[in-house]
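User: I'm putting together a teaching handout on how sequence relates to shape, and I'd like one worked example. Could you take Nicotinate phosphoribosyltransferase from Dorcoceras hygrometricum, show the sequence you're using, and then write out its predicted structure as tokens right after it?

Assistant: Happy to. First the sequence, then the structure tokens directly below it.
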Amino acid sequence: MAAEAAANGVEKEERQTGIIDGPTNPMVTPLLTDLYQFTMAYAYWKGGKHNERAVFDLYFRRNPFGGEYTVFAGLEECIKLIANFKFTENEITFLQSSLPPTCEGGFYNYLRGIDCSDVEIHAFSEGCVVFPKMPLMTIEGPVAVVQLLETPLLNLVNYASLVATNAARHRFVAGKSKLLLEFGLRRAQGPDGGIGASKYCYMGGFDATSNVAAGKLFGIPLRGTHSHAFVSSFLRFDEITEKSLHSCDGSNVCEDFVSLVQIWLRKLKCSDSLGGIFGETNLSELAAFTSYALAFPTNFLALVDTYDVIRSGLPNFCAVALALNELGYKAIGIRLDSGDLAYQSCEARKFFRVIEKEFGVSDFGKTSITASNDLNEETLDALNKQGHEVDAFGIGTHLVTCYAQPALGVVFKLVEINKQPRIKLSEDVSKVSIPCKKRCYRLYGKEGYPLVDIMTGENEPPPKVGERILCRHPFNESKRAYVVPQRVEELMKCFWPGKSGKDREELPPLKLIRERCIEQLDRMRPDHMRRLNPTPYKVSVSARLYDFIHFLWLNEAPVGELQ
Ligand SMILES: Nc1ncnc2c1ncn2[C@@H]1O[C@H](COP(=O)(O)OP(=O)(O)OP(=O)(O)O)[C@@H](O)[C@H]1O
Ligand SMILES: O=P(O)(O)OC[C@H]1O[C@H](OP(=O)(O)OP(=O)(O)O)[C@H](O)[C@@H]1O
Ligand SMILES: O=C(O)c1cccnc1
Ligand SMILES: [Mg+2]
């Protein structure tokens, strides 16, 4: 394992060519592709076609999760791959042993020499809200090289965009004021799934992750509580040997914090307003909470459902929180991880408010309530409908595994070769590709909302503010509309100029991408965003592009013969 890691390190060093770092995951190499990309590359090379200039579009056909929007994610990792795309000798040797022995040696010399310096990439900015059929990325370059990129680019964009969209959808249901914590690492599809989930859930609007490696790699805020194991690991109070605690301002020391907690529990039991709600609480749980508070007096948050939330966890938490309060500390709150989260959160809030009033502890009623346990869009929606008092949600399995829809169908299709537009036909009209190298615009209406996205041919004049333009459904003749845009936004920017001499768009830090994503989602018309029967956002082509698609379609489709 160590030798392998060292070898990977050497390979990585050998590969570094650009000023852009390599992909986050060292498994992302030019070999992370399907075999058929190499066999096609060989056949292109053998046929002398490998340097023909090709244009591919990367796009998807349907929004995920029954919604009408998608968040585009994964671009930075794509550019990191492109910037460092170079075969190592070791990889060439492996390829030589994997392709048929009839493949000529000259091909491997060709592979040795290739990189992405002649590849040009235009793309939407990462974190943008995107829609079906629009090219998210356009990749232009020597056909054999771009062909090799198909699988890794799809791999880097598919899950990233899916999980970022899932996160955005969870944020939408939870509401802006809630703290959203991604807790999915243990359930994610392997280490890369876990790291990717943390990065892209943050991008899609989560506030923090429990994944420490992701915190280090991407600067995502880290948050966490503790587990049931910590609570059940305690049997008795006398396990706590170091009982002293400095007051928050350091002015005095409480020599026996354990006794102070027990005094507060008795006070709670005797309280007029709380009397009768609980009797004997679980004392091993109280020992666990006390010990945790001694370890983290400024960050005390307790998981209260190990034995019984109302009869034990809640009063035990409050006893510790009030003892901390006496020393000038403010407890953070509780986490609920089972049972009826709406009911329990409301009960907990009542309990906190009573304490605030009865013991005069200001803001105790606002003590934070975190909820977790198999949460998803539906449960968040159900909690909202019932009414709840949860301030923060910890979400794992459903979020990171994209349980509701495990894949986004992003595809990579040839749209032009040697300046000749190409089309892929299908019985299923939604699968017909849109030919040509294109330009993409978002047209905004009077109210400031995006109205429609439109694709035009590369050399068509762009839509102009205040000028009426016909927007046509790419395949359905009767669906068309005139639009007078109040604002026109060109959507694709050059992220990798190749030899074009264009400026390269900078890759922004994750935090800025997240801000862009949140801002774009906010700017959408609400009916596109609602969960039930959202209105589809219109994606269109110019009249000229429409005519050209259908001309090419007729040209390429064989005429049937009836017998
Ligand atoms: N008020 C509520 N309305 C709708 N769904 C809820 C509500 N409260 C909790 N849930 C959801 O109900 C499900 C309860 O699951 P389950 O029965 O497995 O948990 P539990 O038995 O309470 O907890 P555990 O088995 O983890 O101790 C979870 O998916 C949770 O998110
Ligand atoms: O439920 P998720 O959305 O995946 O969130 C993460 C879960 O992971 C932890 O416990 P774990 O599930 O490991 O054990 P538990 O089911 O017994 O709580 C935590 O207590 C949450 O319940
Ligand atoms: O910090 C937590 O509470 C946490 C982290 C991961 C999974 N479940 C909970
Ligand atoms: Mg669980």
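A couple of points you could highlight for students: Residues 12 and 534 are 46 Å apart (CA to CA). Residues 143-174 form the longest helix (32 residues).
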